[in-house]
Write a structure and sequence with these properties.
It is built from five helices and ten strands. It is α+β, with helices and mostly antiparallel strands. The radius of gyration is 16 Å and the shape is globular.
Length: about 180
Amino acid sequence: MDTATPPGSARLTFRDATDADAPALVALIESAYRGDSSRTGWTTEADLLEGQRTDEEGVRAVIDAPASRLLTVERDGELIACCQLEHRGDAAYFGMFAVRPGAPGGGLGKVIIAEAERTARESWGVREMHMTVISVREELIAWYERRGYRRTGQLTPFPYGDERFGIPQRDDLAFELLVKNIEAL
């Protein structure tokens, strides 16, 4: 599936990831969320969490799950972003959203999330998109609110002690559920 990007940008290609994409996707996700390279991007968690964000086994689990899709986003044949969609009844879950740090923006995130919403609605007939965001990520949450997501106040404790989610650098982390009605988009 293809979609046009903002004026002046190269065309984006969206496709479902395959197992062969796993190493490149891990590198993309790690660069967007962890370490010094992530600090140039807006998805960085480097000041909140250390350690890995994901691994090939975790990425392949998302790719292979029957109710899940891991969309890759390419510009001129180069992997620049990805996001996970998971069918959960009347809703879809949006996660693992990563954009390569330093990738020219120009509304890239808006285009990707709009395509993810369209894909979830058309693929599964869902009415809502759900996501969880670390609750102290105020700037990121504000960006999602500008895209029509609303904070629910529903918090899930951060899994302290489970290094698969990273090594917390503070003791006040929790995930907040954000929701958007995508039925009439």
